[in-house]
Amino acid sequence: MSRLTNLPEPGQLVYVRQRQFVVTDVLSGALPPDPLRSRPAIDQHLVSLNCVADDGFGEDLQVIWEVEPGARVIDRKSDLPAPTGFDTPRRLEAFLDAVRWGAAAAADPRAIQSPFRSGITIEDYQLDPVVRAVQMPRANLLIADDVGLGKTIETGLVVLELILRHRARTVLVVCPSALQIQWRDQMREKFGLDFVIVDSKLFSELRRKRGLQVNPWTHYPRLITSIDFLKRDRPLRLLRDVLPAPGEPAFPRRFDILVVDEAHNIAPSGRGSIQVDSQRTAAIRTLSPHFEHKLFLSATPHNGFLDSFTALLELLDNQRFARTVEPAQEDVLLKRVTYG
Predict the structure, then answer these.
(1) Is the pLDDT of residue 12 over 60?
(2) How far apart are the C-alpha atoms of 111 and 109, rounded to whole Å?
(3) Which residues span the domain enclosing 64?
């Protein structure tokens, strides 16, 4: 089959870069023929695609079809098989179950998909954060399980569930620098989510390949960075460039999910009026209002000072908590039930 006959048409389903896409537009190249070539040049076409895969639903992509490796049209024009009879009730029931479990309904909080789409063995208590997250309009959770109980797994379940329900697409994980590779590997191996580590090396590589105006914070949908890199002047300045300027509306929010590992490191130190924000605290305070969902992880969220703990809760959700104001009793009981 020639390249021309294999050219997709708008509305067709195609397989590109290990994902399925729907073709939205096909544009033919307008370059004149090269007089130095003895053979006629092959026409090239710019194909606009829209992703229909679970982990990238709605993402747009443009490719040159003739040079895109592995691109193929999924043939959907073949005739349906002739019916030969009725399925048994048991087979029909299995089919209906497969359809029901294969469709993540944003309006149904009971149909949790992420445990079935992850490669892990899950304990019962690890399902509690994801169940609560899908019931909240904004998933602002402080996961304060003890060391070794799987806070990373609980976070991955919440992130994957929100992505499957199309409530989130962009994710930023802020963690200590020693844990960046661990976060990237676990998200890829256990949940099938690819993350890119943002550091000085990535900054230099993108500037060399994509130009001086490229902004790494908007170049990839899922990012991992360290809190000590984020607080530097240049990364924070580039991040402010994509945030609303003072006086501009903050809604809709620019990003979807913010994950802060070892969140006790961003809590301000001191007490009362002498409480001072560190550079880490100031960096997260700049980011926090521009994320729809926030997940803070810490095995030691309370350092014994109420002022510091309430300031951490204020960073998590400033609509429910305020600095120096003791949390309501129902919130304390909810946290004990959830994470205690």
Answers:
(1) yes
(2) 6
(3) 13-73
